[in-house]
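Example record for the data management plan.
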Amino acid sequence: MLSQSPKFAAIAFALAMCVAAGTAACGSSPPRSSPSPSSPSPRSSAPARFPGTPAGRQASWLVGAVTRGPIPAAQLSRHFDPAYLARLTPAKLNAALQGVTSLRVDSVTASTPDGLRFLVTVNGATTLDVAITVDAAGLITSLLLQPAVAPSAVPATWSGVISQVRAAAPRVRLLVAEVTGGICRPVTGIDASTPGPLGSAFKLYVLDALARAIAAGRVSWNQRLTITARNKSLPSGVLQNQPDGSAVTVLRAATDMISVSDNTAAGMLIGLLGRAAVEAAARAAGMADPALNVPFLTPSEVFVLKLDDWPALAGRYLALGAAGRQAMLAGTVDRVPVSTLPEAGWTQPRDVGSIEWFASPADICRVYASLAALAGRPALRPLAGILSLNQGALGLDPGQWLPAWFKGGSEPGVLTLNYLATTRTGRTFVVSELAESPAAPIPAAAAQSLLGAAAAAFTLAARTEAPR
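Corresponding structural encoding:
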């Protein structure tokens, strides 16, 4: 995703930035009164629940440490990346975690060697979604706490789904569709054919282009890509924290691009494939108006256009046609190092209707259908694992559903949640929700509403009669 504060990495999509934004507020987290001497003894769940990865080991330490807070600065320095801890500060971290006396790990929802996402119950009452990433040295480079969706946020009827989506933002689009034979068959929707800004959901098109290149023999999963100062982006993600000259495989870059929405990975893959190949893949995947994404921007280019001398530079770019924009990207925008961009980022919507990536929910359904077809080829079997590693906290019953595919996206004024899920009886559905607010940030609670609506939509859609 594109972070509201780009210098702070965050995984997947933002419900409520708290620790990663350096604030003491954390959505619906418990009150932060200081523990008294008579407080209950600290309790935490068994760390064996976590995988034995670098991220898992740090999560295990964190779960144990927060109930014994405040965490000493010296201890934090042994577990956090120094640059990240300098921005976060021990005082802010301890303030955000103050009042936590018990912590139960409920489940691990996504795991890579350098990233982990898990659900915890705090003080026996509040469920939080926690995401953590680590660098090559195993030090924590991002920490995101966000409220998990409450059962009351999941509507029981189609009218409830529609109402909940409409309430999320001034402009919303929705499609609930069943995919049969590679065709999206709508169940219900709101302006489902109207394009809107995607945020990091554009990465589905990069993955589709990559899959086509691998199928054609032009690229391999094991091919190595070199991380350089020039191709590093601002977060979200973790690869921007790797030393210059580090190498990762195409498979690792693709996995990080989807599972932790790594912007550097996306930029490297666009560079490998070529902008034209991604634009061609968008056309091949059935995007109704692919011209909206020509030239197809990299995350770094969006950051530069929205942070370097905004709105003047952005205005110059928008005044040009496609060829002029392409030339300006190569001659001006791509020469601006992201390390020189303002630290504070942006908190209000900036050009969300003009400098972004655009598609409709119907387009998103078609690219998911394309990826599903590609995933059936022997050489492209990693696709399913890449897309299901982070299931977007959807929470469907695993007894009835296979692991869901997810890609979301956000920046101030933009929030999108996009899922594909298949029942264990073989019916496949897509739910795509696009929310847009050009004049003001979308409230954090809107993400909870959209997530609850998406979960309900899958349940309700599975009850409909299968197409004949």
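Summary line stored alongside the record: The longest strand covers residues 102-112.
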